[in-house]
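Today's session is about reading a structure prediction critically. Students often jump straight to the picture, but the first step is always the sequence itself: look for stretches that repeat, for charged clusters, for runs of hydrophobic residues. Only then move on to the predicted structure, which in these notes is written as discrete structure tokens rather than atom positions. Here is the chain we will use throughout the hour.
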Amino acid sequence: MNGIEKITARIEEDGKAENEALLGQARAEAADIAARYQAEAKAAAEEILAQGRRAAEERARHLDSMTQMECRKAVLTAKQDVIEEAFQAAHKQLLDLPREQYVALLAKLAVQASATGREKLIFSAKDHIEVGKAVVAAANEQLARAAAPKLPEEVAGSKAGAILDKVVTGASAILSGAAMLTLAEETRPMDGGFILSDGAVEVNCTFDTLIRLQRGALAGEVAKVLFD
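Below is the predicted structure for this chain, in token form.
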């Protein structure tokens, strides 16, 4: 091998060695880059999975909260239905009272609602016929007794005293004009109770209205009785 060939061979060897070195460096850098990106990809994948788990857990909590809320709403609705049934049952019991008790109840309501003692009582067509006159008479008797002076017991206890008591009661009612309720000729559709009319002023004493007005005050007590 002459000198030129030796030089050429040496250059080729040096170039090959340099290429090998560069290639090794490139491989090392590529491996480093690959490892770095692999780590980043793994971290990103873990973060995505963690976010997914958090989202799933939050969704599960939300669904659980909604389920509990729906359960509470269902229970509340059921309780309200039971309370409504209780008020309806009370309404029916009022309508089903024996005649004597029914008349006494309506007479008491009329006395409490009356402001002048000269109003008209308007009933349903059925009650107008069956109890209207009896209610008016009983209410007027209570109003008259409230307006009459109290007789001494030794007088009121005798037979003559009983007659005198009736006379005094009737006279007091006439003089005070406070026991002159009358039965209106007209009737109106209603389900128990009556309407107290004094010209343009009316007091609604129907069972529907009385129960509705008392419902807010009594619903809590009814719930305690039903659910405690």
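Discussion point for the tutorial: Confidence is low (pLDDT under 50) at residues 160-175.
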